[in-house]
Amino acid sequence: SELQISPTQIVPWHSHSNVQDTFYVIEGQIKIFLRDPDEQVVLQPGNTYSVKARRPHMVRNTGKTSTTFLILQGIGEYDYVPLRET
Questions:
Q1: Which of 17, 31, 32, 61 has the most other CB atoms within 10 Å of its CB?
Q2: Average pLDDT over residues 27-38
């Protein structure tokens, strides 16, 4: 899937039970916040990062312009499990 998020937009905390997310940034910059363990990853154009199934994560546009990125999801049943922010 190709997504575009504005400079103030986030993809809220969530996880997936069976699939991993692989992010690929086309334009702009995103920061992925992760739990278990806590980690932050900044991605710029051409960068990729994979989040394993069941690992909570949130995505934020940390740039000053809209960001376009791809999410490639692994094989398996897709779900979106929202998490409460702490």
A1: 61
A2: 97
